[in-house]
Every structure is written in C-alpha cells, then in structure tokens.
C-alpha cells in the first residue's frame, strides 16, 4: 500500500492579502484532510478497520477581520486560493502512483463506495481538526493513538 501525506499550504501573492493578514488577529489554525481509505476485515470481536491509503492535508490559519470590508476581501482571496488548491489535488489524485491496486470482485466494496447508483467513487472522508487546541493534551489510549497516527503522517 502506498501512503502519502501531502502538506498543502496556501500561498497568496496579493499585496492586499498580506496587508490584511498583518493587521488581522489570528484566532487559530486548523487542518482539513481528505482521506481515501480501504476497509480491512479483522478477527471476529474487532470491528472492520479503515486504513488510509492516501491523505491530502490542507493547513489553514483562521483570522479575525477588523472590519466588514477586510472580511469581504479576505473571503474572496481565500475562496480563490482554496479553489485553486482543490483543482490541483483533483488533477494530482488521478495519477497511478496515488491509486491503490485494483481489488478482486469480492473486495470491491472495501475500496469503492457502492451506495451510489451512477458512480462508485473511492471510499473517502473529510476530516477537520484544530492545530492549536485550547484544551489540555489528550491522555491515555486516545493520546497514544493520535501520537502514533501523527508519527505516521510525518
């Protein structure tokens, strides 16, 4: 299985954007990830495991605008940039190195979503998470699982 974590950053070349960001207050950072996964059966008492074979991560800084005009300009600029990045991801994802090997007929539902009658896209999920959470760090099993997952991403 090929697993690649791609970090995408928004680069804006607009001088207006740079001036808006310099006077705005960053509230928090967030990441949005698009994960393509495959279902893997496990022994009886354990549930089916969803194993990501491709993950695209978009990091965002969220700012507080000082005025409505600043907000309107930031919204337009960010929408254009995110739209360009989505198109880049869509064109890149069609390359053979980003696709899993074709499953056998009995395993099709482990790779493709067969709930739609017209098309069968790869199984995917969109996740979001704050980068700088205000709460205390996770503890116990959940914290260890996130730590291992983050190690595999980086």
From TrEMBL:
InterPro entries cross-referenced by the UniProt entry: ATG101
GO biological process: autophagosome assembly
Keyword set, alphabetical order: Autophagy
Pfam families hit by this protein: ATG101
GO CC list: Atg1/ULK1 kinase complex; phagophore assembly site
Recorded GO MF terms: protein kinase binding
Record-linked PANTHER family: AUTOPHAGY-RELATED PROTEIN 101
Family to which this protein belongs: Belongs to the ATG101 family.
Protein name as catalogued: Autophagy-related protein 101
Organism per entry: Ancylostoma caninum
């Amino acid at each position: 299985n090929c697993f690649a974590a791609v970090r995408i950053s928004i680069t804006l070349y607009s001088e207006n954007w740079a001036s808006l960001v310099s006077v705005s207050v960053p509230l928090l950072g967030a990441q949005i990830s698009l994960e393509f996964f495959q279902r893997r059966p496990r022994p009886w008492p354990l549930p089916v495991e969803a194993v990501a074979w491709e993950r695209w991560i978009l990091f965002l800084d969220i700012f507080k605008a000082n005025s409505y005009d600043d907000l309107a300009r930031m919204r337009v600029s960010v929408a254009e940039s995110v739209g360009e990045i989505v198109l880049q991801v869509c064109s890149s994802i069609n390359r053979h190195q980003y696709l899993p090997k074709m499953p056998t007929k009995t395993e099709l539902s482990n790779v493709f979503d067969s709930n739609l009658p017209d098309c069968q896209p790869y199984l995917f999920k969109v996740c979001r998470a704050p980068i700088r959470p205000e709460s205390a760090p996770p503890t116990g099993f959940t914290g260890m699982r996130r730590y291992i997952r983050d190690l595999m991403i980086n």
